[in-house]
Design a protein that fits this description.
Number of domains: 3
Oligomer: single chain
Strand content: 35-45%
Structural class: alpha+beta
Distance between the termini: 135 Å
Strand order of the largest sheet: 2-1-3-6-7-8
Shape: elongated
Largest sheet: 6 strands, mixed
Length: 451
């Protein structure tokens, strides 16, 4: 028999207009993901008659939500009394957990309900304070309100863990732990929010039977291992997620799990031994640090016995990596035409595994001292080629060729250097040598005549 919960969501003044949309949206959706049906009493339906009618359903196992309160009562839409000390509490109330967010009800109303046979309850002994941004939201995601989100994530941990098969006592402690976790997160953003989170948790008291279960059945847990390999060349992160759903009684759960990496997910059937595996890739455009939220959700299964829902959550940080490259000048030849030397060169750029790198810009320089430079782009095979020319001195016969790839966000830079040879400028040198030789001959004849 699936559990049902009543969600009180009045909507008529500042506090309820800020809080209740998240009951109608995010909280309701999260409970239903955990296979818990909900009866939403929104706005005008958050009245005494609708609440008491809903509780008569034998499948109703809890009341959550929000409502203003005092020591002896809780009110709904337009401050209508929903429940008060002295009401006739029949057997329909003695099967459910009562834990709306409401001021002061932990002083008299909630203890009194437990005395009347309500199995468990949570109530605030003082006023419940919260901070929020200045306008109502759609309520589909706590991130819509950058202050209220801390209270929502903390408070509804209680109901989410109950839905996952934990006892009321366990769920209550998990809720308190989450209040502290959220307070630490809020401290970095708004110290006032952190203060009130800790204040609310301190005065949020549990009453009744800590062994209360929302849904009778076999508790389960999800064990999972997440391996991520960054493929920088493919501009993606490859995920390998494996695990097993384990039942508390030693039996093998059946069904399937939902596996999510951020907002990308799939439904994966369980193997005969309760194991599962899933691989996926998350593509990116910039090689930078990425933080991924991983969730594996087991929604439960009914096959003779009822396996309760459970889930695994973690975050994985993937650091940027760069790929080594190799640049090689495969051929460099120089020739001279008078004062000008021409260089014909070829080369190749590839990664450390020998994969060509097409479309990359390579700078090439020629000469020593004063250089000639140009940029060329590698083709589909990672090859590049070109021609450079520069004026060389008459007797110069060697020059340096350098090619380099500067690197980018994925690939590391690399370079190569060669020295090429070429003849001197004979067209200019020979006449000079001839003139020098002729001068020397004349000088020799002159000296001979004198002597």
């Amino acid at each position: 028999m699936p559990a049902k919960l009543v969600i009180l969501a009045p909507y008529y003044e500042v506090a309820t207009r800020l809080w209740s949309p998240f009951l109608r949206g995010w909280v309701k959706n999260e409970l239903e993901k955990r296979k818990v049906e909900t009866v939403l009493l929104w706005g005008g339906d958050a009245n005494r008659q609708k609440l008491w009618e809903a509780v008569k359903d034998p499948e109703i196992r809890g009341i959550l939500g929000v409502g203003h309160g005092s020591e002896t009562e809780i009110v709904g839409q337009n401050n209508e009394t929903l429940l008060k000390v002295g009401d006739s509490i029949g057997p329909e109330w003695r099967k459910l957990c009562f834990a709306p967010v409401s001021c002061l009800v932990g002083q008299k109303l909630v203890p009194w309900l437990v005395e009347q046979g309500v199995p468990c309850a949570v109530g605030e002994e003082t006023e419940y304070w919260f901070t929020a941004e200045d306008k109502p939201r759609e309520g589909n995601d706590p991130e819509e309100d950058q202050l209220l989100k801390y209270y929502l994530r903390a408070e509804y941990t209680y109901w989410f863990r109950l839905a996952e098969g934990f006892t009321a006592g366990q769920a209550y402690q998990m809720m308190l732990d989450e209040y502290e976790k959220q307070a630490k997160l809020a401290q970095q953003v708004d110290p006032e929010t952190a203060y009130w989170l800790r204040y609310d948790a301190k005065h949020r008291k549990f009453f009744g039977d800590g062994s209360f279960l929302l849904t009778p059945g076999v508790r389960t847990r999800v064990d999972a291992t997440v391996t991520v390999i960054r493929d920088a060349r493919g501009r993606k992160d490859d995920f390998f997620i494996t695990g097993r759903v384990v039942a508390e009684d030693g039996s093998t759960p059946k069904g399937w799990v939902e596996v999510w990496v951020n907002d990308k997910g799939a439904t994966v059937p369980l193997e005969e031994d309760g194991s599962f595996s899933w691989t996926t890739s998350m593509f990116w455009t910039r090689n930078e640090e990425k933080l991924y939220a991983i969730a594996v959700i087991y929604n439960g299964y009914k096959d003779g016995k009822v396996y309760l829902p459970s889930r695994f959550d973690t975050q994985v940080k993937v650091e940027p990596i760069t790929v080594p490259t190799v640049l090689t000048i495969t051929d460099a030849r120089a020739s001279r035409d008078g004062p000008i030397v021409f260089l014909d060169y070829r080369g190749r750029l590839y990664d450390y595994k020998g994969n060509p790198l097409p479309g990359k810009s390579v700078a090439v320089s020629f000469g020593d001292g004063e250089l000639r430079e140009e940029e060329v782009v590698t083709d589909g095979d990672g090859a590049f080629q070109g021609t450079l020319s520069k004026i060389a001195e008459l007797l110069q016969t060697k020059a340096t060729v350098r090619a380099w790839f500067r690197g980018d966000d994925v690939y590391q830079g690399s370079s190569d250097t060669k020295v090429v040879s070429f003849p001197p400028n004979w067209e200019a040198v020979i006449p000079i040598l001839a003139a020098l030789l002729a001068g020397a001959l004349v000088l020799a004849l002159l000296l001979a005549s004198i002597l």
